[in-house]
């Protein structure tokens, strides 16, 4: 039940005033005490989302539980559109207080009737009666042209941007405004905060460097005059952005990463650049480890906090099939040597990740041929495998693009060296079953090589958006496809048992799990209280218990992540302290070593001098020994002389006696 007397946004402001929120965008007070705390917090978050927008306030301190709870309620709504927040606010108020409208004095005279919402398949409406007997107001016939809603059925239905796409599983060219970008292919595309960014590409053999953005709310093109920082992030010098093609754009938080790409003056190793939409500046990120060689046409897949890079074509046009991983937290490269048979060297292929564990590589081309093979890499065991595919077998192609929605991998575009590929395929990554989603006729941009494909969510529904490409002509067209519910896709898949090969490679899942992942937001894991009724596009909020359970689950998950983050920060701090201590000890030991080396050199010098002194003393000792020998010889000679003199004297004495006896005279004295 909704009041038909007021249209949005007046109905929202009336409900906000009744609930105690002031009834104006400037009011930010808490809800009235007539509601339970959890309901009041949810209403507060929706009110802030509707009047202010996504939460950008810093998280309050833990010692202020009231402000902390209000911030959590608001922040948990993510990027929900303001119009949707208004409708949810009124819906919750009607569930809590169905008679609120009659209690507002100035609105008491207004009647309360049912309002029929838009349905995907529109037929001329007639006046009918509801189950409770209340008559419905006359509705207008809604015509469609190319799948776009041309007229709204009820004046409170706010349709804008992607909401104008009314049909499922068919490519639609929406009406866009603003100056369109130059036609191109081999560019990069990424969605950040409900805006699609297009960077670089190739046009007539020339690389481009412009950055274009399409506002998905208003479908309006605009150009960003981006600059490049010269040197490090701390540098204030800016310059022009280098043209590039064949690179990969990856959204990371509120920023965009550009990896690789062909340039006029290629570097030796692959470059990683970051664009900040707030400052409109490009900057080169410093990485560690051994980076891969420069290349273009590679695949870059975001898996948790890492980027997995495979294949591509280097600056010399040599094809590659190497595998590298970049940790975005430490910005460190890791060269992976996987086991098993890897895919053949290729470029312009598509890659996706399933269950944060399995890397899927499909298609691509070499210089002579195109591929339609599917390879799977187990990121835990680092082993390649080639499982069996089921369903509508895709043909060979290169230059195609792919995006994932839940467990479904959508593939669009590409070529096979003869013509463009006209069909859009989807692969259920849990069962490896292919099916055809849509087929285009003629020479249209969707059957092109080098187009980009991104996904965005609007009012609980997923949308695929393609841009650009080349099929003999360069394109700058935007096409949108709204895939039907996952159960509808599965109903068109070829039935058959899951093969043992698939079961051995990927974990099997059933339909109920697929629907659970889809409805609980497997892609962005945010609040999705809205679900589509059968054949009806009316957006209904889940009941209070479901909302509480989802909010509590999100809170618990958030607290767990914050706890893990705090632990990691503490560990990093401890490691830094240990590293600082180790460096200090290393410095001290280095000083001690230098001191010991100096002492050792002094001791070596002293030892050398002592050795010289010892040699001199040995020479003196030898001289003394020679002198002693000479002295001993002289002593012996002296003793011999004395002995000889004594003998001679004795002989003289004995000769005088015998001479006297003989009568000889004694010798004269």
Automatic annotation (TrEMBL):
Annotated stretches, region: Disordered: 642-669
A GO-annotated cellular component: cytosol
Keyword Transmembrane in record: no
Transmembrane segments: none
GO biological process: lipid transport
Domain ACB residue range list: 8-102
Annotated InterPro entries: ACBP4-6_C, Acyl-CoA-binding_protein, Acyl-CoA-binding_sf, FERM/acyl-CoA-bd_prot_sf, Kelch-typ_b-propeller
Name of the protein this chain belongs to: Acyl CoA binding protein
């Amino acid at each position: 039940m909704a009041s038909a007397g007021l249209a949005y946004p007046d109905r929202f402001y009336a409900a906000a005033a009744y609930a105690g929120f002031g009834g104006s965008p400037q009011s930010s007070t808490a809800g009235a005490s007539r509601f339970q705390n959890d309901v009041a917090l949810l209403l507060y978050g929706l009110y802030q989302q509707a009047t202010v927008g996504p939460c950008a306030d810093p998280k309050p301190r833990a010692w202020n539980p009231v402000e902390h709870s209000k911030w959590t309620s608001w922040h948990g709504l993510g990027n929900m559109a303001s119009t949707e927040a208004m409708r949810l606010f009124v819906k919750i108020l009607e569930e809590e207080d169905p008679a609120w409208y009659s209690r507002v004095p100035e609105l008491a005279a207004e009647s309360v009737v049912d309002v029929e919402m838009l349905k995907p398949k529109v037929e001329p409406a007639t006046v009918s009666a509801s189950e409770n007997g209340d008559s419905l107001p006359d509705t207008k016939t809604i015509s469609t042209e190319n799948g776009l809603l041309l007229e709204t059925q009820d004046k409170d239905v706010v349709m804008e941007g992607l909401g104008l796409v009314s049909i499922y599983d068919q490519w639609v060219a929406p009406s866009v405004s603003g100056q369109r970008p130059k036609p191109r292919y081999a560019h990069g595309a990424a969605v950040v905060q409900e805006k699609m960014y297009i960077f670089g590409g190739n046009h007539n053999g020339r690389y481009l460097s412009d950055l274009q953005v399409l506002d998905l709310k208003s479908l309006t093109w605009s150009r960003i005059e981006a600059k490049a920082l010269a040197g490090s992030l701390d540098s204030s010098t800016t310059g022009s952005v280098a043209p590039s093609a064949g690179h990969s754009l990856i959204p990371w938080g509120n920023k965009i990463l550009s990896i690789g790409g062909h340039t006029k003056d290629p570097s030796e190793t692959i470059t990683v650049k970051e664009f900040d939409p707030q400052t409109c500046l490009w900057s080169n990120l410093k990485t560690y480890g051994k980076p891969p060689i420069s290349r273009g046409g590679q695949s870059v897949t975001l898996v948790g906090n890492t980027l997995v890079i495979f294949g591509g074509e280097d600056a010399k046009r040599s094809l590659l099939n190497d595998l590298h991983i970049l940790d975005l937290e430490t910005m460190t490269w890791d060269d992976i040597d996987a086991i098993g048979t890897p895919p053949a060297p290729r470029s312009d292929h598509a890659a996706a990740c399933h269950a944060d564990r399995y890397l899927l590589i499909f298609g691509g081309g070499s210089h002579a041929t195109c591929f339609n093979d599917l390879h799977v890499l187990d990121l835990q065991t680092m082993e390649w495998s080639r499982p069996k595919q089921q369903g509508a077998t895709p043909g060979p192609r290169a230059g195609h693009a792919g995006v994932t929605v839940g467990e479904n991998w959508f593939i669009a575009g590409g070529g096979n060296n003869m013509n463009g590929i006209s069909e859009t395929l989807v692969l259920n990554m849990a069962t490896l079953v292919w099916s055809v989603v849509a087929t285009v006729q003629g020479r249209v941009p969707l059957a092109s090589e080098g187009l980009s494909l991104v996904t965005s969510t609007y009012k609980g529904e997923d949308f695929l958006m393609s841009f650009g490409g080349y099929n003999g002509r360069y394109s700058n067209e935007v096409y949108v496809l709204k895939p039907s519910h996952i159960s509808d896709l599965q109903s068109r898949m070829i039935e058959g048992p899951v093969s043992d090969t698939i079961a051995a490679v990927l974990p099997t899942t059933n339909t109920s799990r697929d629907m659970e992942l889809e409805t609980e937001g497997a892609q962005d894991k945010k609040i999705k209280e809205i679900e589509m009724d059968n054949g009806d596009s009316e957006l209904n909020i889940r009941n209070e218990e479901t909302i509480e359970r989802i909010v509590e689950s999100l809170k618990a998950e958030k607290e767990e992540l914050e706890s893990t983050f705090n632990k990691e920060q503490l560990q990093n701090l401890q490691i830094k302290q240990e590293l600082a201590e180790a460096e200090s000890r290393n410095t001290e030991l280095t000083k001690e070593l230098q001191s010991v080396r100096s002492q050792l050199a002094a001791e070596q010098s002293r030892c050398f001098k002592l050795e010289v002194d010892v040699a001199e003393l040995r020479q003196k000792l030898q001289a003394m020994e020679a002198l002693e020998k000479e002295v001993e010889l002289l002593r012996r000679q002296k003793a011999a002389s004395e002995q000889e003199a004594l003998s001679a004297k004795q002989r003289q004495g004995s000769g005088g006696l015998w001479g006297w006896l003989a009568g000889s005279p004694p010798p004269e004295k």
